[in-house]
Design brief:
By secondary structure, this protein is an alpha/beta fold. Helix content is about 45%, strand content about 15%. It has one domain: 3-Layer(aba) Sandwich (Rossmann fold). The longest helix has 20 residues. The chain is globular and about 45 Å long.
Amino acid sequence: MGQIITVASGKGGCAKTSLAMILSGTLASEGYQVAVIDADPNTCYFQWYKLYEGPAIDCSCEIRQEEIVDCAQAKALDFEVVLIDTAGFGNTTAAFAAGTADTVLIPVMPDRASAVEAMRSARQVQAFGKAGRREIPFRIVRSRWNPRGLVERAIVGDLMAAGLPLMEQYLSDLSDFGKLSLSGKVPLRGKLGTQARLLVAELVSCAALPPVPARRAA
């Protein structure tokens, strides 16, 4: 059974889809068998997938709340990693996607509203877990981040004060983000490529991902 990772937050515009793009392409390049479910009615990931150039990724769309759990669990029978890109938690399908996840990744960007939303999303994930009588592991992932910035440092302080699990690795604010959305090419080299691989390694270390396969993508 593969690992189900849901990328989620309370609202749109916080780099969920960008994180799903970077993770899926990097995982595929590492040799993982990867499936992505686009559960956002806007189908941003699926539209990008049409441009995607890289090792094989299975991509499907499922926005129906009554189907998303079965879809994710069926994919997990055939793939090592299943990523679910969601709309905000105002969408009930996103709530079901979080409820079936082995791990939820909550992206945060360097502004106060994004930080408040990340903390709210964390509380929602905890509530979904209580409803299912289990703990749903989650991690906060910093995106488009300058670790030396005053705003970024203040936000990290707030997140840590709230006791939220913060990934050590972050993704910098680089022009590669814009290129990624237009080209369909996930950067495997350079600063963003290195950061993405380190993020994968950290996810492996906290058991959110299975170990890197012995096989490698060509």
